[in-house]
């Protein structure tokens, strides 16, 4: 009897998927031998089935109308992709480093290229920095690279922005 | 026999799982973004999909049935207003059930302090021990179910809700623990005790 009490607990745990493989084997063995526990198992199975099949309550129409009337209208809805600033800044600095490296190699290999470059982008920030005689063209190049990088990222981000739905 | 039953339970769980996947197919990232943006149609869809589930949770949790409609409406307004706080990595259904559960719990606690709002425990309206069920009626499955559900509804709130959540949508122990804010071990204990209680009561009443 005492032994069966423990098996009854195991039957309840079996239906809660709380038994180990080993325990299941032990329970299975016992159910083959003990009629009383087998009956107990069948009763528990019936209860489980009834609980599992308990129907949901239907929300009354009044509640549905009430909730839907509360939600305010919106004219336009845009889906904005999530934007991770840490990743964005890392990418921007990565692009900037490449731009600096390419420009450095370019200017180092071609004497006079700087003048040509400044002339070509005279309206840009690098020209601005050089004409102000700031600590030379390196700072200008860095600023220029960062501006280019962030602009690229911003354009990319904007391109991801799309209208999902209009009321 | 055990293996067969286990296979059946697993199969039933799989069917339920597929049903949930089908139901949740639109609960993707875009859908959450639309919800967070205040898209009315997205919220209407969410409401249509979950209205009966939330209604059932509230209905099974509170005794005062006159308050169910108000509570359900309040819960959906709360969901709408707080959707921006929802973390996409979590399960939307679990998050909503937690809001529903906490809202009802809060209401029950307030009602206990207010005698005009006191909820009536089901035992007093449906006294099973004094009105023994008709033996002939017991043969009917419906009658057995009616008694079982009444017994479930008369259990203390925590046991009742663990049991309901467990069978409601095959919600995992982990999710029940998250919804109710109790450790997973406690969920298992409550479930075990609730089942034992039901089995004993049903046997005592001659229903099983």
Description of the molecule:
The complex is a heterodimer of chains A (about 170) and B (about 210). Chain A is elongated and about 100 Å long. Chain A has 8 helices and 2 strands. The longest helix of chain A is centred in the middle third of the chain and has 25 residues, at about 85-110. Chain A has about 170 residues and is mostly helical. Chain B is mainly alpha-helical and about 210 residues long. Chain B has helices at about 1-25, 30-35, 40-60, 70-80, 90-115, 120-125, 135-140, 140-155, 155-170, 175-180, 185-205. In chain B, α5 packs across α10 (about 175-180) and α10 (about 175-180) crosses α11 (about 185-205). Chain B is globular. Chain B starts with a helix and ends with a helix. The interface between A and B is large, with 47 and 51 residues.
The CATH superfamily of chain B bears the name: RNA polymerase sigma factor, region 2, helix turn helix motif
Which class do the helix and strand fractions of chain A yield?
A: mainly alpha
The CATH class of chain B turns out to be: Mainly Alpha
Q: Shape of chain B, please? A: globular
Largest sheet of chain B: none
Oligomerization category of the chains in this entry: heterodimer
Q: In the CATH hierarchy, what is the architecture of chain B at level 2?
A: Orthogonal Bundle
User: What's the SSE pattern of chain A?
Assistant: HHHHEHHHHE
How many domains in all of chain B?
1
Strand content of chain A: 5-15%
Q: Would you summarize the structure shown here?
A:
The complex is a heterodimer of chains A (167) and B (208). Chain A has eight helices and two strands, in the order H-H-H-H-E-H-H-H-H-E. Chain A is mainly alpha-helical.
Topology of this structure?
The complex is a heterodimer of chains A (167) and B (208).
Chain A: H1 2-15, H2 21-33, H3 35-52, H4 61-70, E1 76-79, H5 85-109, H6 113-120, H7 125-131, H8 136-160, E2 162-166
Antiparallel strand pairs in A: 1-2
Chain B: H1 2-23, H2 29-36, H3 40-61, H4 68-82, H5 92-113, H6 122-125, H7 135-138, H8 141-153, H9 157-168, H10 173-180, H11 184-204
Helix pairs in contact in B: 3-4, 3-5, 3-9, 4-5, 5-10, 8-11, 9-11, 10-11
């Amino acid at each position: 009897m005492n032994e069966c009490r423990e098996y009854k607990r195991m039957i309840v745990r079996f239906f809660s998927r709380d038994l180990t493989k080993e325990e299941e084997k032990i329970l299975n063995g016992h159910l083959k031998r003990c009629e009383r526990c087998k009956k107990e198992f069948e009763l528990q199975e019936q209860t489980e089935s009834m609980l599992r099949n308990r129907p949901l309550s239907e929300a009354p129409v009044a509640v549905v109308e009430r909730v839907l009337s509360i939600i305010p209208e919106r004219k336009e809805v845009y889906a904005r992709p999530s934007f991770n600033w840490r990743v964005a800044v890392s990418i921007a600095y990565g692009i900037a480093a490449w731009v600096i490296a390419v420009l450095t190699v370019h200017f180092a290999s071609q004497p006079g290229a700087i003048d040509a470059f400044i002339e070509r982008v005279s309206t840009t920030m690098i020209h601005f920095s050089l004409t102000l005689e700031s600590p030379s063209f390196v700072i200008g190049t860095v600023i220029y690279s960062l501006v280019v990088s962030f602009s690229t990222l911003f354009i990319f981000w904007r391109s991801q922005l799309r209208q999902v739905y209009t009321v | 026999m055990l293996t067969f039953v286990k296979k059946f339970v697993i199969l039933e769980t799989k069917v339920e799982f597929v049903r949930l996947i089908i139901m949740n197919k639109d609960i993707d990232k875009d859908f959450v973004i639309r919800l967070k943006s205040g898209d009315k149609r997205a919220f209407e869809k969410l409401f249509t999909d979950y209205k009966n589930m939330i209604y059932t949770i509230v209905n099974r949790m509170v005794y005062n049935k006159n308050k169910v409609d108000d509570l359900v409406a309040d819960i959906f307004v709360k969901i709408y207003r707080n959707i921006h706080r929802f973390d996409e990595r979590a399960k939307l259904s679990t998050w909503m059930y937690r809001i529903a559960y906490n809202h009802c719990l809060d209401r029950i606690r307030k009602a206990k302090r207010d005698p005009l709002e006191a909820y009536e425990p089901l035992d007093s309206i449906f006294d099973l021990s004094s009105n023994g069920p008709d033996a002939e009626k017991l043969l009917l499955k419906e009658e057995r179910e009616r008694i079982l559900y009444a017994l479930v509804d008369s259990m203390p709130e925590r046991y009742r809700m663990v049991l309901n959540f467990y069978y409601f949508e095959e919600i995992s122990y982990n999710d029940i623990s998250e919804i109710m804010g109790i450790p997973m071990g406690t969920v298992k204990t409550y479930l075990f005790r609730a089942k034992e209680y039901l089995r004993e009561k049903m046997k005592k009443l001659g229903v099983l």
